[in-house]
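Bit of a strange request maybe. I'm writing a small parser for structure token strings and I need a real example to test against, not something I typed by hand. Could someone generate the tokens for this chain?
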Amino acid sequence: MTSVILLGHAPFLQALELLFSGPGYSQTYRNTWMGWYSAGGYIMDSAGVMLSGRDGKMPAYDTAGLVGVRFEDTAGGFIEFELEGRFRDKPLLSIVKECMGADRENDGSAVWRSGHCEVGKASSTFGIPRPSRKLVIGYAGVREEPLNWVLFKIQESSARRELPFAFGTQNSTNPGFAGRVYIYGVQYAVERAGIWQSVSRPCQVDAEGCVTSHNFPRFYGTQEHCSIEIEKSLAGPLNVTDFTTESNHDVLTVNGKAYSGSVGPDGITPTETIVWRSDHSVSNRGWRLCPPALARTESSGKQQANLAHGGLQVFLPVIPFAMMCLACYCGPTIQHSWRRWHAHRVRFRNDLDQDG
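Reply from user aminoacidic:
Good idea to test on real output. This should exercise your parser:
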């Protein structure tokens, strides 16, 4: 099952913004970690790169207005939720604070049993058994221990697990996965660039309308697969701004030709679906494909030229008709004025002759 962003009838592309990254087994990012509930707490260098192994939250967790939230792991599993109306365009920090307030201890009350808030509904998922239909914040179910609850409930409970597969639990970031886990915010990006007809996950679209490998400019994951459908009528030479993959193993295929290593399909006009695959081992920085720079300008110019040409075609047949109307309406007046001027000229000459 592949999650696809359909663009054919949508005015906007959607972009993913990394909000949080950390090991699933970490005891730092439990349900009581202050970073979930207050601004700051991220560690970045002067270039905006996360330090300490890229663990922790990004500034976008505090500030980015969202239309959806996506939870995923490095095994390829993910679930994405579309935010409900009153939570849309808010940062995840604001949503968590609004739902949880100062409540951090499960007292077995109804609000803990059902969850403090249902903030979104599942829109796509892959690789997660029993995915939750709703994104629930602050959930304990039937448990009554003060700290036995989850911050983000993304999977239904099972008989084999005391807690559901979740983010922000009593003892760790995510008890159901030992590898790295991520939280992404889904944002509206830019007006749809016509060349991209659809982009499947985990590839993503950035704020400038360029398609990138997952997690770019950070390392992409292993065993990834995505496809990029092309609007052939608008296709043009690709602008590859970045390309670094594992040679001969992590491959981007354009027009049937495989690109890997440091050589990408720059200047190539795609005529069929672009396919990306990474293998099970080494990862790298990835790639970024931008649509033809002049595609919009040329299209706009052609439209303006067509409008001008069409307007001229409409205007030309009107000219003779307008001249006829002008002659009919103004002709008598012009003729009368000319006669008066001519008579005055004749009298003036006669007066000169008499004086002479």
